[in-house]
Design goal:
about 500 residues, alpha/beta, Rossmann fold, OB fold (Dihydrolipoamide Acetyltransferase, E2P), 6-stranded parallel sheet, 5-stranded mixed barrel, binds S-adenosylmethionine, binds iron/sulfur cluster, binds FE3-S4 cluster
Length: about 500
């Protein structure tokens, strides 16, 4: 029997990490990854619902696979399933949209996939596993697919913030954290497998600790008070403690960098800012000097309507304090434009924030109404064309800032953690004379401040997961081009 599977992933790193977990689970069942859907016995769409467009993409991709079901040969007919945030939210409603679907699973039922497939294989149709896991605590083991120097590690799941526009609390459930001990054991195992950089994942990793097996569970009434407020109580396990424990654990000595995403300004504590200090002032050496801290808008009036519970002035002082401690820190953020009632003046305040902070990178989105959220009750006062226009304006505005910031790196030597060969890229070695110039394979990696650096590497030595010094010789608003300074690897 055909034992191949194919996965198409949409959405954030959370879904990317989940797809990796699915791949490992299916591999453990004796299956292999197919290069195209036509070759697969099992086709899975891991979908996102954060914006309407994302849902459309998942459903139309599903439509593209429908013809594979129409083959006359039953041994070639694939089983098709949809999961992730789309599965969690829409559950069996998806069979109405796509009756040819065989199964639906959610964000909390991935580990049940072998069971789901067993039922489908036995002839059951329309199998649904999309309830949230009712257990109080969160425990898991990270699964990595293939040889890689980088791994995503879920340290908490869910979101209790309930920003008014956002569907994620409904697709990922309540916040639950793993314990520090469990995360350390998990990462120690990954380091033995060759992982050299981990990205700690969660919707609000900086509220890590709240609701783990070592903390007292909150009463329902108390939980109500926490929504939109801070993470663990004083004295409970928290995120800076996890970072310090990772830095100090001897089993993690070969781990070179720690990254994390995403965080909320409300939980971005002084204790966490202090982790970015120089090493002689209590900073954490392995912590990458980069922060992704979504701000969403530069206008306090809009932030209030978004239910973000933070103010622009606090955000700016957090960033100032961070830059004081770590002047080279790379900063990125998320922005929504065209939120209901956003005026031209509010939008200008967002542009002013970009000038003030000088982010290296932004992820900007046009507001998309999500049914069931509080913002969906607000009158959508910004027209679709205004939203599009504001989105284009903000992206163009930021590109000019990023180009300047990236160009200022030219001539500097930066330490790059090598991630692999850059796909479909070739570069010329500018240090050679014109006659010797040739197109070379390009390798890619990131600096501690999260800038992508592409560089030529011709030696046969494997540099995956190594730190290498690269001199920056060119820049665009998206990436840097570099030249290896010497072949010394760490
Ligand atoms: N938990 C993270 C946070 O608080 O920033 C990430 C949340 S979400 C997966 C990623 C981004 O999508 C958000 O930061 C926000 O900018 C954007 N987003 C969420 N809901 C949206 C909506 N209804 N319309 C447009 N963008 C949205
Ligand atoms: Fe959504 Fe807000 Fe939670 Fe982020 S913090 S996932 S934007 S509700
Ligand atoms: Fe999308 Fe779910 Fe992530 S809605 S952005 S895949 S948490």
């Amino acid at each position: 029997m055909n034992k191949q599977f194919f996965i198409k992933t949409f959405g954030c790193q959370m879904n990317v990490a989940d797809s990796e977990r699915i791949s490992v689970l299916l591999t453990e069942q004796g299956m292999t990854l197919a290069s195209c859907p036509e070759n697969a016995q099992v086709i899975i769409i891991n979908g996102c619902t954060v914006r309407e467009k994302a849902v459309h993409k998942a459903i139309s991709t599903l439509g593209e696979f429908q013809f594979l079901k129409e083959t006359k040969d039953p041994t070639l007919k694939p089983w098709i399933g949809i999961g992730g945030c789309v599965g969690q939210l829409d559950k069996k409603k998806l069979f109405k949209k796509a009756p040819y679907l065989d199964f639906v699973f959610g964000t909390d039922t991935i580990d049940h996939l072998p069971e789901i497939l067993h039922r489908v294989k036995s002839g059951e149709r329309h199998v649904v596993y999309a309830d949230f896991d009712p257990s109080m605590n969160y425990s898991t083991e990270t699964k990595v697919y293939g040889d890689q120097a980088q791994a995503f590690v879920n340290i908490m799941k869910g979101c209790d913030k309930y920003c008014t526009y956002c569907i994620v609390p409904y697709t990922r459930g309540k916040e639950k954290s793993r314990t520090i001990d469990e995360v350390l054991d998990d990462i120690a195992r990954l380091v033995e497998l060759g992982v050299r950089e981990v990205t700690l994942l969660g919707q609000n990793v900086n509220s890590f600790g709240k609701g783990n097996a070592n903390t007292k569970n909150r009463e329902p009434g108390e939980l109500q008070n926490i929504i939109g407020k801070v993470g663990p109580r004083a004295g409970e396990e928290n995120f800076p403690q996890l970072l310090r424990a990772m830095d100090e654990d001897p089993r993690l000595k070969d781990l070179k960098r720690i990254r994390f995403t995403s965080s909320h300004p409300l939980d971005f504590s002084d204790e966490l800012i202090q982790c970015y200090a120089p090493l002689d002032q209590g900073g954490i050496s392995k912590l990458a000097r980069h922060l992704h801290l979504p701000v969403q808008s530069g206008s306090n009036a809009v932030l209030k309507k978004m239910g973000r519970h933070h103010q622009i002035e606090t955000y700016i002082s957090q960033m100032d304090r961070l830059r004081q401690l770590s002047p080279e820190v790379g900063l990125s953020t998320d922005l929504i434009v065209g939120f209901p009632s956003e005026t031209e003046e509010d939008f200008k305040q967002t542009l002013a924030l970009l000038d003030r902070i000088q982010f290296d990178n932004i992820y900007a989105f046009a507001y998309s109404e999500r049914p069931g959220t509080r913002a969906s009750q607000l009158e959508d006062t910004v027209s679709e064309s205004q939203k599009k226009e504001r989105l284009q304006t903000v992206l163009k505005y930021q590109l000019a800032i990023a180009e300047k910031r990236y160009a200022s790196r030219i001539g500097k030597v930066m330490e790059v953690l090598v991630e692999g060969e850059a796909k479909n890229q070739r570069m010329m070695d500018s240090s050679l004379s014109v006659n010797d110039k040739d197109w070379h394979k390009v390798w890619t990696g990131k600096t501690t401040c999260h800038r992508v650096v592409n560089f030529i590497w011709t030696s046969p030595r494997n540099i995956l997961g190594k730190l290498i010094n690269v001199k920056i010789i060119g820049a665009t608003g998206l990436a840097l081009q570099g030249q290896v300074v010497n072949e010394e690897l760490r």
